[in-house]
Amino acid sequence: MKHMKKLLILSIVLITLASCVETKKGDAEKDGLIETGRTQIDVGTVGDGTSMHSLELICPFGDTLYFVYENNAVGGLACGDMISVEYTENDGELNAQYIVNLTTLCNQWQESDEAGNYSFKFEDDGSATITGFDAVYDQWCILNGLLNIANENSNNYEKFDIVLLTEDSLVLKSKKDDVEIRMAKK
Q: Based on the domain organization, do 10 and 70 belong to the same domain?
């Protein structure tokens, strides 16, 4: 029940964010990608019908969605893991653009080099405890396949490519200054 409540809260957060990022057919995105359909976001758990290029997503309210994807699942796809899927629908087929394993991401991470300045703790409700930056960041989300961190009370935000996400490693690359941060699970 506790897992379902967290999944419901995360779903509401991501659906709210999705309403801000939906693009209409033919619109260009900031990073230069052009979507052929309407971008949508869903959160759920990986179903046992998932295979190499087919994703079964069990949504919080019991719906099941099936996606086609191409090696774009960051953090892997294990049955039962909570994931976020950004996708388009073309001719009735759901095409996953970005898949991020939230079960793997929602942990505490510490920079693994000697300086060790950066620390990220991601909660599954979208809150975060992040240190090592000049600004304070207290929330996170995944949009357009990027990890976005922000401050709820200001316009401070940062965007990162998720270069690597495994059970014990997280590598982020800043979109602002192209700096790579290598982290280990704490």
A: yes
